[in-house]
């Protein structure tokens, strides 16, 4: 098993797929490597590629607000990363082969973090990590257990910006998440 630093170094010099060609930064992740709760999106967008941190564009600002509302903070008590670590051109969906090239890094990150809860953000991450036939509009906010980890699909904050009518439902998911955290990993909220 590689150390966190070894994985990060390998990821940051990765050239396993075409997404390496136009990247400015590899976006490895942000947060507490000891977090009990992990958020996983699909892949970096323009701002993330420029800044080297996940969810720092408009969608990320909305995500931060929703996190703040339930006392979660990317710098304190969670870890945030993506399925693919390099930006797909023009923010297209990451292709299956790109996801498969990259997912080993996510698996290694998850093995070291050992989260109790994984929240997937959006359809792509939910389909890849929870089930291929996930119906995100219907199933967001539900929780299933997989190998001792609770998996919860959520709507993608960029989708919420496009369709504000889903905001209330999305916020309800965060409230469900807060209750689940208090139940299974209350240390998330300690100090
Ligand atoms: N969308 C994602 O899925 N991930 C990011 O890091 C930014 C936007």
Task: Write structural notes for this entry.
- 42% of the residues lie in helices and 13% in strands.
- By secondary structure, the protein is of the alpha/beta class.
- The chain has a single domain (4-181), classed as Uracil-DNA glycosylase-like domain (Uracil-DNA Glycosylase, subunit E).
- A six-stranded mixed β-sheet has the order 1-3-2-4-6-5.
- It is globular.
- The structure holds uracil.
Succession of helices and strands:
HEEHHEHEHHEEHH
Cofactors and ligands present? uracil
In helices, the fraction of residues equals 40-55%
Identify the CATH class.
Answer: Alpha Beta
Instruction: Return the structural class.
Output: alpha/beta
CATH topology: Uracil-DNA Glycosylase, subunit E
Distance between the termini: 31 Å
Number of E-state strands: 6
Uncertain runs are: none
State Rg: 15 Å
Q: Could you state the CATH homologous superfamily?
A: Uracil-DNA glycosylase-like domain
| Number of contiguous helices | 8
Q: How big a fraction of the residues is strand?
A: 5-15%
């Amino acid at each position: 098993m590689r150390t966190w630093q070894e994985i990060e170094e390998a990821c940051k010099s990765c050239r396993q797929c075409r997404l390496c060609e136009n990247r400015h930064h590899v976006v490895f992740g942000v947060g507490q490597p000891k977090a009990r709760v992990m958020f996983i999106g699909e892949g970096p967008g323009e701002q993330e590629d420029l800044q080297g941190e996940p969810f720092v564009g408009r969608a990320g600002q909305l995500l931060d607000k929703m996190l703040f509302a339930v006392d979660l903070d990317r710098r304190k008590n969670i870890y945030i990363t993506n399925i693919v670590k390099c930006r797909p051109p023009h923010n297209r969906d990451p292709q299956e082969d790109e996801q498969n090239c990259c997912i080993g890094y996510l698996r290694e990150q998850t093995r070291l973090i050992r989260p109790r809860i994984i929240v997937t953000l959006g359809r792509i991450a939910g389909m890849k990590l929870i089930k291929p036939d996930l119906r995100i509009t219907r199933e967001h906010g539900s929780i299933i257990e997989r190998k001792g980890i609770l998996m919860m699909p959520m709507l993608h904050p960029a989708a919420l910006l496009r369709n504000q009518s889903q905001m209330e439902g999305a916020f309800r998911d965060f409230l469900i998440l807060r209750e689940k955290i208090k139940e299974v990993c209350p240390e998330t909220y300690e100090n």
